[in-house]
From TrEMBL:
LUD domain residues: 116-211
Protein's name in the database: Lactate utilization protein C
Start and end residues of each stretch annotated as Disordered: 13-34
Superkingdom: Bacteria
Amino acid sequence: MSSRDRVLRRVRDALGEARGGAPDVPRGYRRRLPPDEAEGRADVVALFTERVADHRATVRHVGADELATSVAAALWGREAKQIIVPSDLPFGWLAELDGVRALADTPGTDLELLREVDGVVTGCAVAIARTGTVVLDCGRAQGRRALTLVPGYHLCVVHADQIVGTVPEALARLDPSRPLTWISGPPATTAIEMVRVRGVHGPRALEVLVVED
């Protein structure tokens, strides 16, 4: 037996293949929120709101009939003049815009334009209460990944029924073959000098509108 064979045999033995298969991996982690954290939909939404705020993102609750006005107010509050949006963003979300130019993204939109706009408006695929995370999978109203990685401001619309309690619940709703972007507040990094810098690899500001239908 060669040295290579001996090494591979030890690896197989360690993995349990010599005994007829790989060992069972215990997966006893919690898949849902415990009752003391969330007993119903309202509690899940409230926990999501709390955790998003913990990440130093802005979060507001709006009614479905207030969404267009709230989107406009958020952009006016930042004195935005030009934004970019996914080409399939629902038109009604921008129906109240006045004085803000909305550009529909196309495959030919270059990165320089994404840097110059005042922000981006998108939806999401799912949101997670436990971690205060929104997940985008490039589906409807979300656009390509560059849309939420390059502009300095991201306004994300999250419907209450898109919010789940835990990461396992979110994974059950997601297709792992799609490009997933997980966003937990504005991205930040700490340099060697221990100076925390925001927006190095993503928007410096994240605002979330939770729509209660």
